[in-house]
Amino acid sequence: MKPNQLRTFLAVVEQQSIRGAARLLSVSQPAVTNAMRELEADLGVVLLERSVSGVRLTPYGQAFEPRARFLLSEMRRTREELDEIREGNVGRVSLAASTSVALTLLPSAFREFRSLSPGIDVRLSEASLPTSLAKLRDGSVDIIVSQMMEPSQSEFHITPLYSSPLVVAVRSGHSLARSRSLRELSDAEWLLPYDRETAPHLLELLFAAQGATLPKRIVQCTSTAMGLRLVGTQDLIGVFLETLAQTEFKHYGIKRLKLREPLQALVICIITRRDSQLTPAAQRFFDCIRRQALLAPVSSPDAASLVS
């Protein structure tokens, strides 16, 4: 397998046509066709089914696609590592961070990293599990800093940083703003800044542990910024991390409810691939994040005990 064959295959997957892949790669259609034939011959399987309406992946192609992405990513990382050894300050780091991390820990970690590595290309994105985990798998993201809802996933290495309790919040003036128990809130409409695939047990953590009835009306919202805005303007009950309550609630007209029941804490972690070594630049960013987490007021010394 050659890198140009892998790139050609992924271009065909993205464009769903030979013509589109040729246009994307600025090569001729016969060049795309030949690269695909060579790759299929090398692998001994048919990756694509061709028709007048375009191309689609065979079962072999579906299995090969994430591997192709990972192989190209590992080739890129290898080149960057060798270049950094030779030239000292080149390469790229791709990091996905949750909103709460972006508003608290990331600025100081980025400042330290940039002072150490001014020439490294940094690419940042908002972490939205499971999308970010898929990018971590295929190598397009090096590091995720977020809460890990399912810490038992063996394919990832999880480094706990600190724990942040969950808080329940409403807009100022909400009719339930004086509520003191989850049992008073089960008939209201709730908003969760996660979806059921991301946090299937979040409601159970909140309600079942307290013997309260699960709410029947739930708005699922994977954007924290959108969730803050909606809770601040609508009659919704939101669930957020304590770190967001400290920094953002005042900007959205949101107040936390002073509930009697203690709420579950989530652990903020650094998530990396267990089977892939970080480049020197990515390892440096990893170390900056971990160091700043120890210095930050959000840190909790018992976070490690919350991750299996």
Describe the structure.
The chain has helices at 3-15, 18-25, 29-43, 59-87, 99-104, 106-116, 131-138, 202-206, 224-233, 242-247, 249-252, 280-295, and strands at 48-51, 54-57, 92-97, 121-126, 143-147, 156-171, 189-192, 217-220, 237-241, 254-256, 265-273. The chain is an alpha/beta fold and 308 residues long. The protein has three domains: 3-73, Arc Repressor Mutant, subunit A (Orthogonal Bundle); 87-160 and 267-306, D-Maltodextrin-Binding Protein, domain 2 (3-Layer(aba) Sandwich), CATH 3.40.190; 162-266, D-Maltodextrin-Binding Protein, domain 2 (3-Layer(aba) Sandwich), CATH 3.40.190. Strands 3, 4, 5, 6, 7, 8, 9, 10 and 11 form a nine-stranded mixed β-sheet that branches. The chain has a two-stranded antiparallel sheet with strand order 1-2. The radius of gyration is 23 Å and the shape is globular. The two termini are 39 Å apart. Residues 1-58 form the HTH lysR-type domain. One of its GO terms (cellular component) is cytosol. GO terms for molecular function: DNA binding; DNA-binding transcription factor activity. This is LysR family transcriptional regulator.
